[in-house]
Structures are given as structure tokens and as C-alpha cells.
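Provenance

Sequences were taken from public entries as deposited. Structures were produced by running a predictor on each sequence independently, with no templates supplied. The record for DUF1236 domain-containing protein from Mesorhizobium helmanticense is shown for reference.
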Amino acid sequence: MRMHLSIAAGVLLLAGIGAAAAQDVVIAPEQETVIKEYVKKQPLASVKIPGVELNIGSALPDTVELHEVPDTTYSYVVVDNRTVVVDPGTRKIIKVIE
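Predicted structure for DUF1236 domain-containing protein:
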């Protein structure tokens, strides 16, 4: 019985990891190039967001103004001198450009 529970727990853990990975947003290389070039040409002033870590998947508060990247579905903002690419629908960070 214990072995069945261990196997079931392992399967559930792996399923959870797979589901989390499936939710990750992957930016196509050509779109990433468009974003980087646009951000370089359109620099923004850096903002501070106390209490928010710049990790992929972290959501930015509604008080942060997002700026559209034309010809993409993404937005960006500069936080603590780091350019952050954001999914505007969820406000989640999908890439931090160094």
C-alpha cells in the first residue's frame, strides 16, 4: 500500500511540474530580437517596485505602467535598471533582459 501511495505521489508531482512548464511563455527568437531592438531605441526611466522580485512568473502590480512593444504581444518596463518583458494580460514577467 505504501508503495502505491509513493508512486501516486511521484506521478502527481511530475504532472504538476509538467503543468507549470506548459504555462511558461516562450518568446520566439525573432520576436526577442524585435523586443531588444525596440527597447534599445525607446529607453525608459527605471522605476522601483518595493516588495516585488524580478523573477519570471512574478506579477507586476497594477500601479506599474507597462509600455507596448509594437508588432508583438508583449509589453515592457524598466525596474531597478533591468528591462522586464511582461505579458500584458497577466502582468507576469516572462523575460528579464540584462
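The chain has one domain: 27-97.
Residues 27-97 form one domain.
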